[in-house]
Amino acid sequence: MVRKNKNNGTEKFEEYYNSLYGQRWERLKAAMLKETKPILLAEDMPSPYYMDKASIIAAQLLPVEKNNIVLDMCAAPGGKTLVIARKLNGTGKLVSNDRSAQRRNRLIGVVRDCLTPTQASVVKICGYDSTKWSLHEKNVYDAVLLDAPCSSERHVVNDSKALIQWSPARPKQLAVQQYTMLAAAFDAVKPDGYILYSTCSINPLENSMIIERIIKKRSGRIEETDVTSINSDLTNLSEKQEYGRIILPDTQNGCGPLYFCLLRRLG
Question: pTM, whole model, 2 decimals?
């Protein structure tokens, strides 16, 4: 009987990401192995909430105005919901969704503790399957945030068990789910509304290639918006991808990884 190599996943992981990043991979991996440095979201909160700086930057890119109806499709643990709810400031409506009951309970606590009663009053928390959202709602939202489940390589490199279990099939499986969620977000947003797609993955398969696919599939009905016109600092803080931009920890003092792309559904 041939014994299974316990390090097989680790070796495949190294080969896979080395093929994507070449000489940069060792430097990028070393940056992801370092302890993260979350920052305070805002000073004027009932209870403090700390987030990766890259996540705050990305969430703030979603165009949200008072009285908008907004959907946060994969909202837990809740940081990006806080950013959106603070923008709405008691007006409009924010639907914050997460399918996991455990994560949803955490989300409920974050909204309760970190928002004022006025800010929290417009937040509705639910637990639907995001991939099937368009089955019950279409053309409803002014803006949709999809912070999609992803490979989360920073977590993987810091977890020996996750490394051993890693397989190249994992990002392929996630990419299928991510595209289905993004297609559902497209159906849920109103014409001329915005979708912010983000992940904490460094894999183009889960990032720019997802965007490329929906632009081709929805040809003439969706376009990328240049986020540097919203935040000019992103020219230096992030790196342009084929579609969207990415913040990587080896060049940004440890923050990230965070990929994001702002899309507009055309009327």
Answer: 0.95
